[in-house]
């Protein structure tokens, strides 16, 4: 990724500013020594890490993003109650299992968001993404219907992410 020549010292100016602010807030002072050290770190860290950036797909459809966030938040609340009822009940009602969900998403960022969404929802945990990025492996606390759960995750989470990232 090429950087603008006038920003060669600051390849990620917003990151640099954020680093400086966080440094000063963590130390709770604007003493000259902390200003100098914070500025040094705010320049050096982005310079060192700027080569590690991978181009990612951009966000599209802000209303879809908002709808997705609200839906996930609602799913987290509902799943908390469902898991609480499962945990309070007899252990023999539980049917834990590992499943593999085929992925249609190809970019790393949307796959990471999908895996994080699955992990945030109580009762499911993303355990691994296959090396070829074609499968998301998930542990389920109580599996009743494998195909139904796969269809739910693909329809409820993966499809909106594909729309958001245009992939």
From TrEMBL:
Transmembrane domains' residue ranges: 7-26, 32-54, 66-88
- GO terms, molecular function: monoatomic cation transmembrane transporter activity
- Give the superkingdom in one word: Bacteria
Where in the cell is the protein located?
Cell membrane
Q: Which GO terms describe its cellular component?
A: plasma membrane
Per UniProt, the keywords (alphabetical) are: Cell membrane, Membrane, Transmembrane, Transmembrane helix
Membrane topology of this protein: Multi-pass membrane protein
Q: Do you know which Pfam families this protein is assigned to?
A: MNHE
Q: Which family does it belong to?
A: Belongs to the CPA3 antiporters (TC 2.A.63) subunit E family.
Query: What is the protein's given name?
Result: Monovalent cation/proton antiporter, MnhE/PhaE family subunit, probable
The organism of origin for this protein: Oleispira antarctica RB-8
Q: What is the lineage of its organism?
A: Bacteria, Pseudomonadati, Pseudomonadota, Gammaproteobacteria, Oceanospirillales
